[in-house]
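Hey, can you fold this one?
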Amino acid sequence: MNTYIWCEDTGSGFEFWKMIFDTLFDGFVVESKRNNTELCKAVSKLNSDDRYYVLMDYAIDNPDVLRETQRLYSVVKGKNNVAVIKIHSFEFVLLSFQLLEDWIFAEEDELKDKRMKLLELKSEFVDLIRNGGDADRLSVLKETLGYSKKLNTEQLSAKMLFEITRNTGFETTKGKLGECFIIDCCDWKTRAADDICGLDQKRLASNDKIKTIFDYSVLRDSFAKAGL
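Sure. Predicted structure:
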């Protein structure tokens, strides 16, 4: 019997999930269905004894995501070999990572000082999503950040992660995952001599990085709830 991980992510999201599962779960097959609609279609057509774990973004303030999430739970019902892993978004996983700023910024880093307010608001945002904060609190946070009130929390996560990591080896966009999250220290291809991060004194191998992200983010609890 095979075990499959199905997600809707492409680009940096798919790269992230593939690194996570390739490192932590030997033999799991990670596949992208490219979007939520195709993911639901694939699950609805399943006729197999193999085991499937389905990753769907759970940013339910996005009406499209909410609709597809409800549809997914409907098609999963009665399929004992399918489990849903509830994850807000891969960007939120990294925002929830407790050592994020310790990895990105060296001690007495000027860049960290410039982004201190953003880092404080990041912590507030993570708490809001994890503990179900209200819409008014979210609206105030967007206003403080200077972001459009039209942004849903998935878009907000992506924008915040980019702004925290930009101009570092951890810079993450929708199309590209920051190399320094997933490669051995210090194999960043475009690293300059003065590019020093918080891991400069304690360099980690890529597998150790993935395991640490798993242990110190929302991933551990989310995977456990899905039976992983």
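The beta strands are 3-7, 29-32, 51-57, 82-87. Let me know if you want another pass with a different chain boundary.
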